[in-house]
Amino acid sequence: MAPLTERDGRGAATPHRKASAVASTNTVVRPVSTKRSTPGWATTARRLTPYAFLSPTVIVMLVLMLIPVIMVIGYSFMDNVITNKFPVFVGIDNYVEVLSDPVFRTATGNTLFFTLVSVAAHLLLGLGFAMLLNSPLVGNVTKALFRVVYILPWLFTVAIIAVLWRLMLNPNGVINYILISLGLTDKGIEWLSSPDTALLAVTFINIWAGYSFYMVTLLAGLQGVPADLYEAARVDGASAFQRFWNVTLPQLKPIIISMSVLDIIWTSQQFALIWMTTGGGPVNVTEMLSTYTYKLAFSRYEFSVASASAVLILLLTMVLAFFYVRHQKARD
Amino acid sequence: MSKEARFRRGITTAVAAAAALTLVTGCSSGAGSDDSTSGGDVTIELAQWWEPELPDGALRTLMDTFESENPGIKVKLLSGPYASTKEQLFAGAAAGTMSDVVGLDGAWVSDFAKQGALADLSTLMKDANYDDSELASTIEVDGKTQMIPVVNFVYPLFTNDDLLAKAGITAPPSTRTEFETAAKAVTALGDNTSGWVLPLSSEAPNGIQNDVMSWVWSSGGTMLKDGKPDVTNDDVTSAVEYIKGLNDDGVIAPGSATMKEQDKVEEFTNGRVGMMIDSLSHIDLIRTSNPDLKFSISAIPAEDGFSGERGIPYASWGIGVSASSKHPAESWKLVQFLMSEKTNSELSTLANAFPGNTKSVPDFSSSDPLFKEAFDIYSEGKPANEFVGLPVAEQLMRLFDEQLQAILQGDESVDDGLKKAQDAWVGEF
């Protein structure tokens, strides 16, 4: 009876299974003939069942994602929307305006720097700390203590992180106090207010806030690497670096690639941290694509130009998402 | 499949489909479900950010008084913080669902007027035979009255008495030269002390209005000509050159470029700066945070030798009526109630602000003595805020802010920076 149960459960039967069922008993044959005489509505209901179950999700995706995205794309081709009751189609004028705006180009450069440096540092720090916490050289109590310390930044919300670092990096803050006390500088450095240091400062804050996620994930990955691979490498005379390069890294590669692509997408869309620390200033040195678009929409009320900027960001993100999905498919 | 199984499958399909339908109807219903006329009563909405900033229940009590004086009209308060009220109003203006009566900031008026979201208050006043001679001011856009300032918050000069005395300054400065001397003397005290604090964050660029343009207005200057930008004129150039001079002298507290209003207040409260230009509404906050701090308020210093009427920057709690309101007459009654001599006195007392009705007088008997002093300064000068009623006012401040930061950093000259700011402003107009 097992093949029959399986067929009912999946709603489909292969010819091979049907033949074997016919060969075994008469009772198995009966459902086949029943199927032939099933009324149309039952078949339709059976076919529709999975779609009915999917429909809440599909509708939510449609209403909350697809329709807004289509609307924003539509807005980007109008002269202005929301503040204009009768918008007029203007073709690609808004795209030309955004792409020819020097602030947009500055924001693109800043976003690229901020994202690439953040992701690289997240990876290096996350991997370093994960290996430290996975090392047999460190005692269990120490490990537990460091796990808590290292994971702390991940537990704070962006608002807390922004306020915390604004206070610490204040010209009268604790960082400058330490530097002055150590004689490294004679007066407080304006970390977030100086054009020379602001971009580096917000990038540093983002690195601090995000490495823990890598660390936790890579630590789980490290704990899954079979010990016999390391033993075999040792037997072959591999040094510690060779074991890391030829065993650890290849084993973590799928995780590293997935995390990096996701992190690039997340970091390139970072808004709250920038907005709450520098607001894109001073003089646009920390302006990102996200803050640039926000200002267009909610400061200048140019919603159509902001939509064009958002669509350009969407296209850039979709390229990254494409690589991520392709990588995931290749893994599967 | 048995009959029972088919039945079960049919039921689950129906349930899943019903769940999906419920979800859709759930998404589409809700908005606009509140019927504004029920049981003969008219319910009007008042959207504002004032209630959270007033003592608990104070605004509701005023509304209860209004309801008892106007039987048949109920007021529903929609209260939120300033920023979310702004977003809510913009969304409402776009969707045509703006509340009947709305709290307004002068910086928003032009943009709402452009959308046609606000009713012409002149027409409503005329329909109600209202005499507007008691109103201290009204804000007009394209010849239509769009906003009435209900109460005003002024921005005088705050001075730290102890720091100034320590630096050998005996009285708050009243001219630019005296201010510069005081700022240098306080900075010379050392120990991370600065003479003045100037917030120029581009996230919240209202420092341009309160802390920069106030130097222009206090000397009777202007940043506009015939309602259009004129930031390259002598008034603005002189003020910016003066601020650049203060910056070059190192008397401005470090961190200006990303400093916000709350940071400014904190620096002053902690005794790290000698002087700041700030809202009167922060007096209680400063007293609570640092009860030992001794400070005074005075008019913002003017150019040496200036003897005219001093402009003093202000911000308002303004009020307007939605163009899409189904109950404009009832909405006007609420505006009229808030602007009446008695209610306006009461509201200004509650808000520690100055009244929008010329006959109203706040009750200072239980307020901080500094409010009385401020009221005298307010009465002697004239409220000045040229950003009120300008299009995209916040963006104008931000554009000026970017140029001022470049000027202060020495990246461009005062003339070049102001020229760029002028071009940017003209573009926005």
Notes on the structure:
The complex is a heterodimer of chains A (332) and B (429). Chain A has one domain (97-331): MetI-like fold (Orthogonal Bundle), CATH 1.10.3720. Chain A is mostly helical and 332 residues long. Helix content of chain A is 75%, strand content 0%. The two termini of chain A are 32 Å apart. In chain A, helix 5 crosses helix 15, helix 7 (140-155) packs across helix 10 and helix 14 (289-298) runs antiparallel to helix 15 (303-331). In chain A, 28% of the residues are buried. Chain B is α/β, with parallel strands linked by helices and 429 residues long. Chain B has helices at 3-28, 58-69, 82-95, 106-115, 121-127, 161-166, 176-187, 207-218, 234-248, 261-269, 283-289, 328-339, 341-351, 369-380, 393-408, 414-428, and strands spanning 37-38, 41-48, 73-79, 101-104, 139-141, 144-154, 157-160, 194-196, 224-225, 228-229, 273-277, 295-298, 311-321, 354-355, 382-384. In chain B, strands 1, 2, 3, 4, 5, 6, 13, 14 and 15 form a nine-stranded mixed sheet that branches. Chain B has a four-stranded mixed sheet with strand order 8-11-7-12. In chain B, strands 9-10 form a two-stranded antiparallel sheet. Helices cover 46% and strands 17% of the residues of chain B. Chain B has 16 helices and 15 strands. Chain B has two domains: 41-152 and 315-383, D-Maltodextrin-Binding Protein, domain 2 (3-Layer(aba) Sandwich); 157-298 and 392-428, Periplasmic binding protein-like II (D-Maltodextrin-Binding Protein, domain 2, 3-Layer(aba) Sandwich), CATH 3.40.190.10. At the A-B interface, helix 3, helix 4 and helix 13 of A face helix 1, helix 3, helix 4 and helix 15 of B.
